[in-house]
Specification:
Strand order of the largest sheet: 5-4-6-7
Oligomer: single chain
Shape: globular
Radius of gyration: 21 Å
Distance between the termini: 60 Å
CATH topology of the largest domain: Rossmann fold
Strand content: 5-15%
Structural class: alpha/beta
Order of helices and strands: HEHHEHEHHEHEHEHEH
Helix content: 40-55%
Number of domains: 2
Number of helices: 10
CATH superfamily of the largest domain: Nitrogenase molybdenum iron protein domain
C-alpha cells in the first residue's frame, strides 16, 4: 500500500472535504525523518506535524559523522527528507541504499547548490521545497500567506539597508552562508572573513576588513556558530557590533519565525 494519497477526487464539497481529511490522516501516520532542523520546519509547515530531525538542532550538516543509531533511524523512517548528496555528503552512501520512494530531496533539480552553502536561508528555496513536498505527499498547501509575510520582511530590510548605504556603511558576515538570504532580499555584504565554514580566512581578506573598519564603513558583523571570536576581535574594534545569527534555525519554532529572526538581525545592524 502506498504511503501517499495521490488521487484528487472530483465531485461535490463533501467529497472534497473527505479528501482533505484522508490526506491529513495519511500525513500523520507517515514516519518522517527530516535530516536537519531547518527541514524539520519545512515538514511541519506542510504537514502541520512536528518531526524531530536526525541531526541535533545546533549541528551543521557539513561536518557531521553518522553513528549506528542514526543509520537505524534512517532505516526505520518511512520517508527521509534531506538536502541531497552535495549538501549532505555524510549521507550519500547510506541514502544510496534507501529505496527512492522512501526519500525526498528538497529542490533536487537545483544542481548549482554545493557543499558549504546554506540554501535553506533563501525564502525562494524554502517555498519551492514546500511546494514540492506537498505535491509529493498529496497534501494541500497554499503559500499565499507565506509569500505575503516574506514580502513585508523584504520591504523593511530594503528600507533599512538603504538607510545604511546613505550613511556610507554596510555589514560584514563571518562567512558566506547567507548567500541565499541575501540574493532573495537584494542584499550585499561588504566583505566576509571566509568563503565557507571550512576555510581559514586569508591575510588579504583580513587586511581589507580592517581597512573598511578603519574608514568607518562597517556598521556591524553577523556572526554564526562557526565564528572564531578571537580572530574577529583581532581585526575589528569593539565599537563595531557583533550580531549573532541562527543560521541553522536551532532556536526557531516555525519557518517564518526563522526567516524573521535573520531579518531582525540585519535590522538591528547600525542602530546603536
Amino acid at each position: 500500500m502506498s504511503f501517499f494519497f495521490r488521487c484528487v477526487p472530483q465531485g461535490g464539497v463533501a467529497l472534497f472535504f473527505w479528501w482533505v481529511i484522508v490526506s491529513a490522516a495519511n500525513a500523520s501516520t507517515i514516519k518522517i525523518l527530516p535530516t536537519t532542523k531547518a527541514l524539520s520546519l519545512v515538514v511541519a509547515e506542510v504537514t502541520a506535524e512536528v518531526y524531530p530531525s536526525l541531526l541535533a538542532a545546533n549541528v551543521s550538516p557539513h561536518d557531521f559523522s553518522l553513528r549506528p543509531s542514526h543509520i537505524r533511524k534512517i532505516q526505520d523512517a518511512q520517508l527521509v527528507v534531506w538536502l541531497g548528496p552535495k549538501l549532505e555528503p555524510y549521507l550519500a552512501k547510506v541514502m544510496a541504499r534507501v529505496p527512492a520512494h522512501k526519500q525526498f530531496i528538497i529542490n533536487q533539480g537545483q544542481t548549482s547548490q554545493g557543499y558549504g552553502q546554506h540554501p535553506w536561508t533563501s525564502p525562494a528555496y524554502l517555498l519551492q521545497g514546500m511546494q514540492q513536498l506537498s505535491q509529493h505527499m498529496g497534501l494541500i498547501w497554499h503559500g499565499d500567506a507565506w509569500r505575503e509575510q516574506i514580502s513585508g520582511l523584504k520591504a523593511q530590510l530594503l528600507e533599512h539597508t538603504r538607510n545604511l548605504s546613505l550613511q556610507g556603511q554596510g555589514y560584514l558576515v563571518y562567512h558566506d552562508g547567507l548567500e541565499g538570504f541575501e540574493a532573495y532580499f537584494g542584499l550585499t555584504h561588504l566583505a566576509s572573513f571566509t568563503g565557507s565554514d571550512d576555510q581559514a580566512p586569508g591575510a588579504k581578506k583580513l587586511a581589507t576588513i580592517a581597512q573598511l573598519a578603519k574608514e568607518g564603513k562597517v556598521a556591524c558583523v553577523l556572526v554564526d556558530h562557526e565564528v572564531k571570536h578571537k580572530l574577529v576581535n583581532a581585526v575589528l574594534p569593539p565599537n563595531i557590533e557583533r550580531i549573532a545569527i541562527d543560521i541553522l534555525a536551532a532556536n526557531s519554532k516555525t519557518l517564518i519565525g526563522y526567516i524573521t529572526e535573520l531579518q531582525k538581525a540585519l535590522l538591528s545592524c547600525g542602530l546603536r
